[in-house]
Amino acid sequence: MNEHAPVPADPQTAPGGGLASAFASDLTLLARFHDRELDSATLETLASLPVAQWLSLRLQGPLFEEASRLIETALGGISDCANRAVLDELAAEYAAIYLTHAYRASPVESVWRDDELLERQAAMFAVRDWYRHFGVTVPDWRKRSDDHIAHELEFAGRLLEAGASAGQFGDAARFLRDHPLVWVPEFCTRVSQRCRLKLYAGFALLTLAYIHGLADFLGQASGLDMTPPPLRLSAVAPLGRSTPTCADPP
User: Fold this and answer.
1) Cβ pair 154, 127 in contact under 8 A
2) Ranges of the chain whose pLDDT falls below 50
3) According to the model, what pLDDT value does residue 235 have?
4) What value does the CA radius of gyration of the chain take, rounded to a whole number of Å?
């Protein structure tokens, strides 16, 4: 990790017994930011607590501090979370990032990893193999592909919970390393640099800080090297269904 990477909490200070579930809840919250537009109830809930209290994995460092500053400044400037104009402005920003791709930052892995920058390519099929192995399917891959950031974050949480009973975090570590950790930093960095509203820039940086912190924790817990593979799949494997799956050795 680089010098700006956050420092995760000591595992012993995290919620006892429910460590994996707590971190899975963190990932569900982060996925929510990338999944759909914000509503007034969500805004009110977010504004009621400082960012440091949103997550069970405690993060430190410049990246997390900047994310917190952006988010808390933005939320502090919203006097009425039910204001239609505020909600419309946030909805327009969500659309610019996730629907119209106005900032040229795709929320799906394939675009970042395919040599021709296409959706629903080898990365999606590799992620789908992971899902299938663990009995997971997405609601409609034609509307939102398997490798969308919201799906990948939620699935990482499922893997954490699945491995918790045996105290094994290898699957979650491998999935995080081989998928989100490869491309989500690129996505989050571009969004934070190009988007118009501080709140979404903060969400992007918070997601980036979190996956780095979680990778550090999982690397320590599993003993795996968490260095992600190269961004382009063609640098590590032929394109197509021969892309490594979760059943392949690390």
Assistant:
1) no
2) 1-17, 236-250
3) 59
4) 18
Per-residue pLDDT tens for 39-68?
999 999 999 999 999 999 999 999 999 999
Phi-psi region of 223 (alpha: psi -120 to 50; beta: other; left: phi over 0): left
Largest Cα separation within the chain, whole Å, is 52
Sign (positive or negative) of CA dihedral 26, 30, 31, 35: positive
Contact indicator for 173, 221 with CB cutoff of 8 Å:
yes
Residue 210 in domain: yes
Q: Which helix (H) or strand (E) holds 123?
A: helix 122-133
Query: What is the secondary structure of 6-65 as a DSSP string?
Result: PPPPPGGGSPSS-HHHHHHHHHHHHHHHHHS---HHHHHHHHTS-GGGT-SS---SHHHH
Calpha distance 37→92 (Å, rounded):
9
The one-character DSSP state at 145 is -
Distance, in Å, from the CA atom of 123 to the CA atom of 127, rounded to the nearest integer, reads 6
Length of the chain: 250
Q: What is the CATH number of the domain that holds 202?
A: 1.10.3480.10
Provide the pLDDT for residue 244.
Answer: 31
Give residue 72's domain range. Answer: 11-235
At 29, list the tokens. 């919250």
Quick check: is 178 in a domain? yes
pLDDT at 166: 65
Q: Does 218 map to a domain?
A: yes
Whether the CB-CB separation of 217 and 20 falls below 8 Å is answered with no
pLDDT at 165: 67
